[in-house]
Design goal:
With 90 residues, the chain is mainly α. The protein has a domain of 52 residues. It is built from 1 helix and 2 strands. A two-stranded antiparallel ribbon has the order 1-2. The longest helix has 52 residues. The radius of gyration is 34 Å and the shape is elongated.
Length: 90
């Protein structure tokens, strides 16, 4: 099947896939650009997901600590908050 390049017919015997011409190069470059944008978007979403998981873990720990303190105060205990004392060696 002959195809025309710059107005001249070319023999395509044994050559099934001709090199891209003109607009096809542009389409290939656009496809590569979209792949890069998709990869960047996926990395941004992964970062947001990791950040949300980290914030969620921090929030759960803070809520557990607050519940323990609330239970302690509900029992009218005075030693609810741990006090750290530096180790003094002489």
């Amino acid at each position: 099947m002959p195809f025309f390049r710059h107005g001249l017919a070319a023999n395509t015997a044994g050559w099934d896939d001709p090199k891209p011409v003109g607009g096809e190069h542009r389409k290939a470059n656009l496809a590569r650009g979209r792949e890069r944008e998709d990869s960047l978007g996926n990395l941004v979403l992964l970062g947001l997901f990791v950040a949300c998981v980290g914030v969620g873990i921090w929030l759960v720990n803070a809520l557990l600590d607050a519940r323990k303190a609330d239970e302690c105060m509900g029992q009218r205990r005075r030693d609810c908050s741990p006090i750290s004392v530096p180790n003094l060696k002489r």
